[in-house]
Design goal:
It is built from one helix and nine strands, in the order H-E-E-E-E-E-E-E-E-E. It is of the alpha+beta class. The chain is rod-shaped.
Length: about 120
Amino acid sequence: MKKTIATGLLLILFSALLMAAPPPQFGSRPKADATRLLTGKVLDHGDNALPNAVVYLTNTRTRAVKTYIVSQDGSYRFPSLQPNTDYEVYAQHEGRKSNVKTVSQFDNRTEVSINLKIDSK
């Protein structure tokens, strides 16, 4: 009888310990509260900065567009991007446009750097 009670108490204790343990983590997806940072430069084909170019960032899910006027060194920055969303980015300067680049949700980097090149003919 005492062995039965002791075994029962051990089983209850073991079950409680299993329930208190955190679930196992599979894969390498970022935490839900983690965000991403997109940075880069807008350059001509000679790798010279194009100040005052405008960078357009489109959320492909909602189609919302954010813009950024680049600094004198041609750099831009978009913080707090959602990791589970694809984005498209391109730049315009004096009527010319760069190619569209994609920031994929399957790229698990928290900081992404993309330089955008514009033909300045």
